Amino acid sequence: MNKYYKQLIENNKNWVADNLKIDPDFFNKLADGQQPPLLWIGCADSRVPANEIIGARPGEVFVHRNIANMVVHTDMNMLSVLDYAVNVLKVKHVIVCGHYGCGGVQAALGNQQIGLIDNWIRHIKDVYRFHNEELSKIENEKEKFDRFVELNVVEQVMDLAKTSIIQNAWTNNQPLHIHGWVYDIKDGLIKDLGVNFENNSQLPIVYQLGI
Ligand code: CO
């Protein structure tokens, strides 16, 4: 068998041993169940590992990742994760975390056809159209790309707030905060974009449910 592949199993054994050295009950406690306070919706990019960049331990973060950290309202996978996180696990926070240099967002800026993924990227192109006025004014390509990454996160936070799952939690007075972050691959730091929702009053009225 290939050396790299074998090493993965070795790494796992070492990881187990390291954890047991610190806390002999580590895995026993996790086996009892999970009560993570946080749902993370992030990019599938290998450089943005949810737990690691926020120093979270196993059991702390419920994670959903896809290309360009999208909240697509017909995505059964995302909706199932969100429903379980909000209604069963009762997470207190949902964070959408994008990242600068995102390949998905870059693809959305261009006109090249890649394949099936073009249909996923289409949702990011919609974000460009919503913010065409601001984005088309930015001449510097890097600045435009960075701002597009940020605006995409803002839109995904809005799309989260629009879901019936999140709005029903708020209607039922379940404490639930949703946030938008951007991670910088170059220095490892997170930028909080300051888009925070804890009720649906900031949504355009046409999206508000149950009022
Ligand atoms: Co990405």
Short structural summary:
This protein is of the alpha/beta class and 211 residues long. It is 47% helix and 16% strand.
Write the layout of secondary structure elements.
Blueprint: H1 3-22, H2 26-31, E1 38-43, H3 50-53, E2 61-66, H4 76-88, E3 93-99, H5 103-109, H6 118-130, H7 132-137, H8 141-162, H9 164-171, E4 177-183, E5 190-197
Parallel strand pairs: 1-2, 1-3, 3-4
Antiparallel strand pairs: 4-5
Bound molecules: cobalt (II) ion.
What does the radius of gyration come to? 19 Å
Strand residue percentage: 15-25%
Low-confidence segments: none
Shape designation: globular
Count of β-strands? 5
The third-level CATH topology of the largest domain is: Beta-carbonic Anhydrase, Chain A
The CATH C-level class name of the largest domain: Alpha Beta
* Class derived from helix and strand content: alpha/beta
End-to-end distance, in Å? Answer: 60 Å
Strand order of the largest sheet: 2-1-3-4-5
Provide the residue-averaged pLDDT. 97
Number of separate domains: 2
Largest sheet composition: 5 strands, mixed
H/E topology pattern = HHEHEHEHHHHHEE
Q: CATH homologous superfamily of the largest domain - what is it?
A: Carbonic anhydrase
**Ligand list:** cobalt (II) ion
Question: If you had to describe this structure to a student in words, what would you say it looks like?
Answer:
By secondary structure, the chain is an alpha/beta fold. The chain has two domains: about 1-35, no CATH class; about 35-205, 3-Layer(aba) Sandwich (Beta-carbonic Anhydrase, Chain A). Helices cover about 45% and strands about 15% of the residues. It has nine helices and five strands, in the order ααβαβαβαααααββ. The chain has helices at about 5-20, 25-30, 50-55, 75-90, 105-110, 120-130, 130-135, 140-160, 165-170; strands at about 40-45, 60-65, 95-100, 175-185, 190-195. Strands 2-1-3-4-5 form a five-stranded mixed β-sheet, covered by helices on one side. Strand 4 and strand 5 form a beta hairpin.
